[in-house]
Every structure is written in structure tokens, then in C-alpha cells.
Amino acid sequence: MQIKISQVIASCACALGLALPLVPGMVQAQAAVATTAASAAPAALPVITDVKPLDASAGAVKKTAESTDNPYGLESLWKTSDAVAKTVLLLLLIMSVGSWYIMIVKVLEQAKMGRQSKAAVKNFWTAGTVQQGAAALEKNSPYRFMADAATNAINKHEGLMGHIPLNDWMAMGIQRAVDRIQSNTQGGLAFLATVGSISPFVGLFGTVWGIYHALTAIGISGQASIDKVAGPVGEALLMTAIGLAVAVPAVLAYNWLVRRNKAVMDDVRAFSSDLHAVVLGSVAKA
User: Does 46 map to a domain?
Assistant: First the structure.
């Protein structure tokens, strides 16, 4: 029994002695495997700390500029048009500016005549004589102009003119003054009527001329796609739109001003009738 135990201990000691030299090699192998795994691992991503936000305003401005840049607008029409088309545009511009100028001036004149009519009713008829009543009015008042015309008719009723009855002679003098006032109130209305009548046709002529040149250019280039046709033809059609934009305000203003002139001249004619009767009465008393 002791012999077997001794043999077992001897065999264990022998196995331990054989295994001890292998331990450093195993440790070195494990260390090498760990080093290889560490080197094979992906490198860590760098941390970005300096991040600048996008300039949203600059992008918005650029986008807006691109969206508002219309290659087929009025600017392109002016740049690509020839001398005839530019002349048409300038004529329409002159018509439009002239129409608006006349509209503003005539409205101011009619308002002024309305104030002068109220002043004549307030100051003229309360005066002692025709001369005193005329002196109470403004120098450029049409009512003073009629009063002066009646006074001058009385003073000039002599010589050959004396053969005309005073009533008829005075009526003629006052009527001439009324006709002169009416002629002044109608100044500029003929221009408005002309612009309202011919500006659509001027714009239509520009349209026809522009379409002719657009189709000629398309025929020479040999490209009739929608992007080649829409731009030039659309620019030419702008001429018609501009002509209508000039004509419509002119026609409306003409009708409106004629109506206002009628109301103003009704007051003038009423004053002239009353003036005629007053002057005849004052002459009869004298």
C-alpha cells in the first residue's frame, strides 16, 4: 500500500514538473492575443467641439432672390425689345403719366370752382353794387369774370354797339364769359378721350410686333418647345396688358370728370342768369 502511494506522489511530482515550464509560454501567448485584439479594434471617432450653425438668413435671401428673378418680366421685355417695341412702351408711358396728371389737375380745379361758387353766393349778392360784389371775389374766380364781363358790356354799349338792345348786348357778353369758362373746364378731357380710345390699339400693335419677332427667332433656331415659345410670346402679350392698364383709368376719369364739369357749369349758368337780371335792374334804376 505504501508502495502505491509513493508511486502516485512520484507521478504527480513528475507531471507538475513538466507543466511548470509551460506556464510562462501560455501567459505570453495570452498577452500577444490581447495585444493583437487591441490593435485590430477601430480607432475612436474624434469629438467635434467646434460646430457652427448654418446661416439660415443667407440661405433664405439667396432663395428669395432666385425666386424673384423672373427672366420673362418687364425688365427682360425692355432689354430684349427692339427700337419699335421700346417706342411703343415709351408712348404708353407718356399716355399714362399725362392721363394721371390731367386727372389730378382737373379734380383740384373743380374743387376750387366749388369753393368759389360758395364764396360768390356768400359775398357777391350781399354787396351794394355789381362792382363791389365783383371786388369781393377772387381775381381768378370765374364768377368775378362774369361780373366783369357784364360791367364791360354796359360800358361798351356805344357807337355801333349802341344799336343793339342793351338786354341782348349784355346777354351776349355774359354768354361769351360762360362759354370761355366752359372751354377752360374741358381742357385736358380731349387728351383723356384720346388715350382711352387708342392706347389699347397701341398696346396691341406692340403685341403683334413682339410675337412676329418671337416667332421669327424660334423659326431660325428650329426649337419650338414650350420653354422657347412661352417667354417671348408672354413678353409680347404684356404690351396688350399695359395698353389696357393705360386705357381703363383714362376712360373712367373722362366720364367722371365730365359729370363733375356738368355740376360745376350748372352753378355757373345759374349765376349768369341771376347776374343778367341784376345788372338789367341796376341799369333801369340808374
Answer: no
